[in-house]
Design a protein that fits this description.
Low-confidence stretches: none
Number of helices: 12
Number of domains: 3
CATH class of the largest domain: Alpha Beta
Helix content: 25-40%
CATH topology of the largest domain: FAD/NAD(P)-binding domain
Oligomer: single chain
Structural class: alpha+beta
Strand order of the largest sheet: 6-5-15-16-17-14-18
CATH architecture of the largest domain: 3-Layer(bba) Sandwich
CATH superfamily of the largest domain: FAD/NAD(P)-binding domain
Distance between the termini: 65 Å
Mean pLDDT: 95
Number of strands: 21
Shape: globular
Length: about 450
């Protein structure tokens, strides 16, 4: 399709995009402001890197499409494949879901630095792909008709047949577009006040008998904390407490344990009591979902696509960000094949595909956040009813293993959302989804 594609940002989204682009361009150049490490360690440009990350069940096949053998390689490097049906302790409303038969709902638990390291190693081994690190993009070159490259903060200009912005939530492309006389996309922000505290702990056999990890889902409006304990490489646990509308976050071991003891399921508190922390709790805030509606631009410029958090940044409590980025990178390939050139029609077509990928996780995140009464922002029509119905489905699924697989399959983006409104599911929700009898 051309000689050179430039990718802004060499994080998970940028690396996934580069893999797709390597099939279509002679040269793919990733530009990142960080000095990228040679080992699996956190880096400055990914402030959420030390906190919990999962690749959802729908993300595993997306990465396998981009990088065949990816899951086996991650497991060999220390990651853990977890079947959500049978290997993850799940609780809500003071009750645990019983294990169900394995249903190929497998997600990957590993540290973000390890995942980036493995993927970066695969991408840099591709013919024609190079990374320029320690340098930032400061603008775009081109006109109202087409973007033709990027300007680096050194003043150097890189010509490109296609630029893909994967610079994340803090991207500056709105300003860059306006400098070329182009409109910026409309933006939606849902403020959920999310803050999270993370503890890395030593992991030994018997810490969580019968399970590879645990996930406790909040039950708003009474409870506003999600909690998890997931295995990491090097025999470690990553324990995360995610608070909606948090005013304070636990910054020491006593406060962490006190928060865990307030959960309706005591399992996490017991795990904390008998495991050794590697260091003090780490905290971070991600107080909103943010979506940029590129698909609604009437006259997009040729030569510029946007992918990952630069399009839509989700509440990390739902664990969808890396999965959606990988799915968008997979969708980029067919869009490039259909058009054969980076014209405005390609840009419009790709962003329509990206919006379709975003639609379900965005609805899940926004509806889930509005279940917490302090959430603000444009509330989609039907949110209250969908949350009422989802609560009944969740409660009914605690009694029906097949419904459990459907419910969590939707949350893992592996089962289509309309499966929850099938008549058989609705009947279960109405009959068995009420509060438990005292």
């Amino acid at each position: 399709m051309g000689d050179t594609a430039v990718v802004i940002g060499a994080s998970v989204a940028g690396l996934a995009a580069a893999r797709t682009l390597s099939d279509f361009y002679n040269h793919v150049v990733l530009v990142d402001r960080d000095r990228l490490p040679d080992t699996a360690v956190p880096r400055r440009g990914v402030p959420q890197g030390p906190h919990a990350h999962v690749l959802a069940a729908a993300g595993v096949p997306a990465f396998e499409t981009l990088f065949p053998g990816f899951l086996d390689e991650m497991v060999a490097a220390g990651g853990t494949a977890v079947d959500i049906s049978s290997e993850l302790r799940l609780s809500r409303y003071g009750r645990a879901w019983p294990p169900a038969a394995p249903r190929d709902l497998v997600f990957l638990s590993a540290s973000r630095p390890l995942l980036e390291h493995v993927v970066r190693r695969r991408v840099t081994a591709l013919s024609g792909v190079s990374i320029r690190d320690g340098i930032a993009v400061s603008g775009l070159t081109g006109s109202r008709e087409a973007v033709t490259g990027v300007v680096l903060d050194t003043g150097e200009r890189l010509r490109a047949d296609l630029v893909v912005d994967c610079s994340g939530r803090g991207n500056r492309s709105d300003r860059w577009l306006q400098a070329l006389g182009l409109p910026a996309p409309e933006e939606i922000e849902i403020k959920n006040g999310l803050g999270y505290a993370t503890s890395i702990r030593r992991r030994t056999a018997g810490d969580l008998p019968g399970w590879k990890g645990l996930l406790h889902l909040s039950a708003p409006p009474a409870e506003h904390v999600n909690a998890m304990a997931l295995p990491l490489e090097d025999d470690r646990w990553i324990v995360g407490l995610m608070h909606w509308h948090a005013t304070t976050l636990p910054t020491d071991e006593d406060a962490l344990l006190a928060t865990a003891r307030q959960l309706s399921d005591p399992t996490l508190a017991k795990l904390l009591e008998h495991t050794e922390p590697v260091g003090p709790p780490m905290t971070a805030r991600r107080p909103s979902n943010r979506r940029r509606l590129f698909e609604k631009l009437n006259r997009p410029a040729a030569g510029l696509l946007t992918l990952g958090d630069a399009v839509c940044s989700f509440n990390p409590a739902y664990g969808h960000g890396m999965t959606v980025a990988a799915q968008q990178a997979v969708a980029l390939g067919p869009a490039l094949r259909r058009h054969g050139t980076a014209n405005a029609a390609l840009v419009q077509d790709y962003h329509a595909d990206a919006a379709a990928i975003i639609a379900t996780p965005w609805q899940l995140a926004v509806d889930g956040d509005f279940a917490h009464p302090a959430t603000t922002g444009p509330r989609p029509r039907g949110t209250a009813f969908r949350n009422w119905y989802a609560t009944r489905v969740a409660r009914a699924s605690q009694q029906n293993p097949e419904l459990k697989n459907t419910f969590f399959g939707v949350l893992q983006l592996a089962v289509p959302l309309p499966q929850l409104t099938r008549p058989a599911v609705a009947i279960q929700a109405i009959r068995h989804g009420g509060p438990p009898k005292s």
